[in-house]
Amino acid sequence: MNSSVELQNIKATSVRIEKEMFYVLLEDGREVGVPYHWFWRLAEATDEQRKHWRFISGGYGIHWEEKEIDEDISIAGILKGNKNPNPLKK
């Protein structure tokens, strides 16, 4: 069985926003912690801005509404360890 296909089929059921990272609860019962520094827009956002998220694609992704953030993250990308570091910082 192709693991990429499996990852594409995993949905989130909730997101918990904490001080240092956010946690995604998956429909299979696992919870994954994601540090904000993986996604530079979230790392630079305020605690209040990080609270304004919603699911996209039926739970296969997360979108942050704030125009300063405007971040879309797929659940499959989180599970693969994909990161979006600040392109201006070396």
Q: What is the CATH first-level class name?
A: Alpha Beta
Share of helical residues: 10-25%
Which class best fits the helix and strand makeup?
alpha+beta
Strand order of the largest sheet: 1-2-3
Number of strands: 6
What summary fits the major beta sheet?
Answer: 3 strands, antiparallel
The number of domains is 1
Identify the CATH architecture.
2-Layer Sandwich
- In CATH terms, the superfamily is Uncharacterised protein PF10387, DUF2442
Q: Strand-residue fraction?
A: 25-35%
General description of the model:
- With 90 residues, this protein is α+β, with helices and mostly antiparallel strands.
- It has a single domain, classed as NE0471 N-terminal domain-like (2-Layer Sandwich).
- It is built from 4 helices and 6 strands.
- The strands form 2 sheets. The chain has a 3-stranded antiparallel beta sheet with strand order 1-2-3.
- The radius of gyration is 13 Å and the shape is globular.
- The relative contact order is 0.21.
- The model has no long low-confidence stretch (mean pLDDT 90).
